[in-house]
Design a protein that fits this description.
The protein is mostly helical and 95 residues long. Helix content is 63%, strand content 0%.
Length: 95
């Protein structure tokens, strides 16, 4: 009898049963989503990373880290500057 190969969704479903893994997975998802959103806002304004960096008085490398999704040092002030530079409104929520 042939053994069924597991696909990513099967493995993920099994791993998410572990509460520590699930917490880490959800935190990573939030960081990735924030980085993606910053990149999309910047692109919508037609700005390069370097141009956005200049606008908010930081470096291009900092913008790359913000957009990369693996950065954990987001300051409220920096996010406010990104919102201002992209013509958006920053909203923080607790649930």
């Amino acid at each position: 009898m042939a053994k069924k190969l597991l696909d990513f969704q099967d493995v993920l479903k099994e791993e998410l049963k572990n509460k520590d893994f699930k917490k880490f997975y959800e935190e990573e998802g939030r960081r990735l989503a924030l980085g993606y959103k910053i990149a999309k806002l910047r692109q919508k304004q037609g700005l390069t990373q370097k141009e956005l960096a200049k606008e908010i008085h930081t470096s291009q490398a900092t913008i790359a880290r913000l957009e990369g999704g693996d950065y954990m040092g987001h300051s409220l002030r920096t996010l406010e500057k990104v919102a201002l530079a992209t013509g958006t409104h920053l909203e923080i929520q607790f649930r």
